[in-house]
């Protein structure tokens, strides 16, 4: 089981806080540090000291970590033009020695677009399809050759398709619970399909749709990694769990079916249910970036039971 830490810095985090979490992630033996890609908070709080740009911060972490994978879950197509995105991700991949991963999605949070003056067009799934084709095409074009793309939304003419990433291919994550276009895009472009914050039964159904979509395009469904993201509150005992969930004001009953809440043994048992329906990678969504002790607890008592 591949086990990753996933953060939401838009709620308010400095780069130094992200670095502390990333280093704790690496020292604890987790496989990756991932972050969301948002510019506006999605919950309560003042958001101070403000947002951090996803790929700028990952570039910094690329130079201050040595082993863990680094990526987004997920970058919206509305934030960056595909050619610029391909350059940024390739550069982080080089800076990290081949540890970058790109999660790419259509974008959904209209308020942050209005707040920062970012266009929020309709038919964003069309943009997503073209961006996936472009970043994949740019990275796979042999050095010395040119890449062109005559899209409806993006047009590239005789692009040198540089710089090249270290990895070939760079892992690309497509996620979400859409029943038609999401599975089709995952089957065509992704190395990983991710779904988050839903029941085991919903995860199983989503994986089934992606496997069916792979069959439709002649792809081996086993060539994809199937992952799940789950909000996580882990405590040494029941009192510690209650302390963490009470401080966060979280809906514990909802987390019992759509997340991970409990002692290390309870967390392991719950992950086992997702593994039974095909999940081989878990993103632990850690909302409190000060909770380094919770990450250390999971490193000590959850990871050894799942490796």
Word description of this protein:
The protein has helices spanning 15-28, 54-64, 82-95, 110-116, 124-140, 181-189, 200-216, 238-248, 252-258, 264-276, 292-301, 303-306; strands at residues 2-7, 32-35, 69-72, 75-76, 100-105, 147-150, 155-159, 172-175, 192-196, 225-234, 260-262, 281-286. By secondary structure, the chain is an alpha/beta fold. The chain has a domain at 171-307: TIM Barrel (Alpha-Beta Barrel). Strands 1-2-3-5-8-9-10-12 form an eight-stranded parallel beta barrel, surrounded by nine helices. β1 (2-7), α1 (15-28) and β2 (32-35) form a beta-alpha-beta unit. α6 packs across α7. The N and C termini lie close together (6 Å).
Structure keywords:
single chain, 307 residues, alpha/beta, TIM Barrel, eight-stranded parallel beta barrel, two-stranded antiparallel sheet, 12 helices, 44% helix, 19% strand
Summarize the structure.
With 307 residues, the protein is of the alpha/beta class. The chain is 44% helix and 19% strand. α1 runs parallel beside α11 and α3 packs across α5 (124-140).
Under the CATH scheme, which architecture of the domain at 171-307 would be assigned?
Answer: Alpha-Beta Barrel
Might you state the CATH topology name of the domain at 171-307? TIM Barrel
By DSSP, the count of extended strands is: 12
What is the topology, as strand order, of the major beta sheet? Answer: 1-2-3-5-8-9-10-12
Number of helices: 12
Unreliable spans are none
What is the arithmetic mean of pLDDT?
A: 97
């Amino acid at each position: 089981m591949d086990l990753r830490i996933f953060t939401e810095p838009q709620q308010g985090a400095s780069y130094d806080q992200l670095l502390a979490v990333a280093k704790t992630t690496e020292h604890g033996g987790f496989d990756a540090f991932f972050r969301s890609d948002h510019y506006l908070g999605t919950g309560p709080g003042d958001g101070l000291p403000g947002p951090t740009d996803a790929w700028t911060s990952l570039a910094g972490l690329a130079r201050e970590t040595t082993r863990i994978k680094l990526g987004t879950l997920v970058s919206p197509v509305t934030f960056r033009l595909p050619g610029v995105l391909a350059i940024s991700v390739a550069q982080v991949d080089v800076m990290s020695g081949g540890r970058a991963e790109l999660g790419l999605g259509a974008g959904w949070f209209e308020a942050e677009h209005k707040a920062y003056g970012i266009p929020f067009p309709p038919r964003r799934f069309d943009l997503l399809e073209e961006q996936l084709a472009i970043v994949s095409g740019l990275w796979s074009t042999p050095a010395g050759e040119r890449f062109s793309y005559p899209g409806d939304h993006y047009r590239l003419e005789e692009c040198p398709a540089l710089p090249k990433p270290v990895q070939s291919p760079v892992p690309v994550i497509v996620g979400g619970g859409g029943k038609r276009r999401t599975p089709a895009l995952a089957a065509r472009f992704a190395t990983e399909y991710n779904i988050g914050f839903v029941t085991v039964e919903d995860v199983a159904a989503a994986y089934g749709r992606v496997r069916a979509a792979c069959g439709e395009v002649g792809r081996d469904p086993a060539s994809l990694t199937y992952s799940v993201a789950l909000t996580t509150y882990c405590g040494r005992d029941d009192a510690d769990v209650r302390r963490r969930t009470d401080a966060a004001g979280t809906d514990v009953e909802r987390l019992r079916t759509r997340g991970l809440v409990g002692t290390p043994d309870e967390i392991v048992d719950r992950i086992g249910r997702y593994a039974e329906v095909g999940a081989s990678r878990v993103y632990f969504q850690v909302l409190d970036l000060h909770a380094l002790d919770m990450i250390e607890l999971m490193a000590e008592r959850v990871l050894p039971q799942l490796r």
